[in-house]
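Researcher: Sequence of VOC family protein follows. Predict its structure.
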Amino acid sequence: MTNEVTVPLLPCASIDDIEAFYGVLGFRTTYKQRKPNACVAVQREDLHLQFFEIAGFDPEQSYGSCLVITADIEGLHRAFAAGMRAAYGKVLVSGTPRMTRPRARKNADGLGGFSVIDPGGNWIRVFRDAATAPVPAATPAGRLAKALANAVVQADSRGSVGQAVRILDSALARPQADDDPVEQVEVLVYRAELAMVLHDPKTAAEMLARAQSVTLTEDESERAAPALDNAAELAAAPR
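Model: Prediction complete. Tokens:
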């Protein structure tokens, strides 16, 4: 048989909150009912999701999750980010709901990915289709790059933000003369993002200031451009 479709069915506390949030991300509602059981179905192109409401459900305790495999994680992230900026004035990086940025995942053979954590606490994990990936990302060689890769696994994949913070703080506490300046910027900006997840704007501002103070050559500035763009967005985001 061919053309089968699998649709995740995920829990939430409110189908209205779910419907509104996914509307922001460019989904349309394809079905909704209140009785006998509250549920809603949303669709964005070939991406289908369904949700069922549980009275008293705590999103922070949710184990709901699904994978989305796509050839264009960057395009999907840009579309989701544009929707968030239009609705909320910023990309949501803290609280529930929120969204991480596309990053290479050490625990996914170096393929890029990002996660959307929706109002139900469900993790929608977007990964690049391995069949369309040109070349897998090289294994990080530098001390700081390795720390960053490990922190991304903990925070962006497992949701263990505290463990990721400990990894990065340990690396930043032991600067070495041969540290790559670009890796230093990337670690500082990611640490700032995690501080915002933890509702710690003071540390976020400190990390962003440190990232801006790193001296970069023209070539290094080009390599660090994605992290610097992220830093600018984090600094401009309403707190």
